[in-house]
């Protein structure tokens, strides 16, 4: 089968910064096109925002800026996630999962994603994994990281 899936992230004016951040975390190449490149008149609000963005590398992500929403507040579209009494409480419709073969492989990725993030559950050994952690990064994306 040749069908694949790629997470497509939606941002409020910060898609370019998010793609560059994820490139710094995972490596790979960023491709981005603006609304202006697709015909929006020069100087119109959103002219320089991302209509199509992609990170292609060990991790593949797509991203774009929601038209007309430019406040950059990730919580406004992403919701929130927290741990309470041993449970994960969230109003988000998805988490982005990242799995590595070892804690040594996962730790550096965790450290980079955790920069300016809200840690929901610190990366540590758990009953089901040699390493499990959850955080919401600076762009409002909640990542679940674990060791296979």
Question: Rg from C-alpha positions?
Answer: 16 Å
Biggest sheet strand line-up = 1-4-3-2
What distance separates the N and C termini? 24 Å
Pattern of helices and strands: EHEEEHEEEHEEE
Structural class: alpha+beta
Tally the helices.
3
Approximate shape: globular
Q: Indicate how many domains the architecture comprises.
A: 2
Which bin fits the share of residues in helices? Answer: 10-25%
Quote the average pLDDT. Answer: 91
CATH class of the largest domain: Alpha Beta
Q: Look up the CATH topology of the largest domain.
A: Signal recognition particle alu RNA binding heterodimer, srp9/1
Total strands: the figure is: 10
**Low-confidence segments, ≥5 residues, pLDDT <50?**
none
> From the coordinates shown, what is the CATH architecture of the largest domain?
2-Layer Sandwich
Strand content: 35-45%
Largest sheet: 4 strands, mixed
Quick rundown:
This protein has three helices and ten strands; from the N terminus they run βαβββαβββαβββ. By secondary structure, the chain is of the alpha+beta class. The mean pLDDT is 91.
């Amino acid at each position: 089968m040749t069908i694949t899936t790629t997470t497509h992230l939606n941002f409020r004016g910060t898609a370019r910064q998010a793609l560059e951040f994820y490139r710094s975390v995972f490596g790979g190449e960023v491709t981005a096109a603006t609304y202006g490149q697709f015909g929006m008149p020069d100087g119109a609000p959103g002219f320089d925002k991302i209509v199509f963005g992609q990170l292609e590398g060990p991790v593949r992500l797509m991203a774009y800026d929601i038209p007309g929403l430019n406040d950059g507040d990730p919580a406004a579209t992403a919701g929130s996630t927290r741990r309470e009494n041993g449970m994960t409480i969230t109003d988000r419709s998805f988490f982005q999962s990242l799995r590595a073969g070892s804690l040594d492989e996962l730790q550096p990725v965790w450290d980079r994603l955790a920069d300016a993030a809200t840690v929901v559950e610190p990366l540590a050994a758990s009953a089901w994994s040699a390493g499990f952690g959850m955080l919401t990064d600076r762009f409002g994306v909640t990542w679940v990281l674990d060791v296979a």
